[in-house]
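Below is a typical protein record.
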Amino acid sequence: MKLEIDSDARTLTLREGTHERRIPLYSRESYEVLSRWWIKVGWNEKAIYNFTWFGRPIIQLPEDLVRIQEVIYQVRPDVIIETGVAHGGSLIFYASLCKAMQRGRVIGIDIEIRPHNRKAIEAHELFPLITLVEGSSVNPAIVADVKARVRSGETVLVLLDSNHSKAHVQQELLAYHGLVTPGSYIVATDGVMQDLTDVPRGKPDWAGDNPAAAAREFAAAHPDFRLEPPGWPFRESELNENVTHWPDAYLRRIR
């Protein structure tokens, strides 16, 4: 596909082979086309590696953070479980929401929590709301450890953000979905990989090897979960698509 922006004529021209289509530059459709390419280019240029939350690097698209905070505010979980810790920015983000709501705590799991990251997380003022668990998120002993930290009757939300291969995410979905309470979610992040097969830092096999593919297959096999992106509680535009790194991510437990 070739894109041509004519800012004087205020048009966006899309060319595929011999087919050409011209649309208004200032339109919903133009925004959605340009956003998809902005996502691809931004991911390749590591745009999300430029943000922090309360002092810790947070490698997430800001749009996704705004959406997940609204989900957390609506669900009001007692426990937020995240696989994948890295620098700890996401854990601090979720803990700050718990602090603001005066409800909830966070469990972070990672196969390796590097000493400098652990030291920074443990020194953070929000660390009292965080528990770190080191080990593979799909190791049965680690899964059992995490389950033992959840008390009966607690509302639980789970985010999967560790190894993003389809096989690993499938294992995580099977390991943790039973903890998710009705009305809450297990979120398989970074399905954007399916759209990054042609960017310089991407890989062709991501077309099928990605978290979104795992989530779709899980939903098809588990009728008590539904692929259901969160709604837009505030909406004063005609846009229909989220700008996101998390397509087909939200699996909501419906019963």
Notes: Residues 28-44 form the longest helix (17 residues). The radius of gyration is 19 Å. The first strand starts at residue 2 and ends at 6.
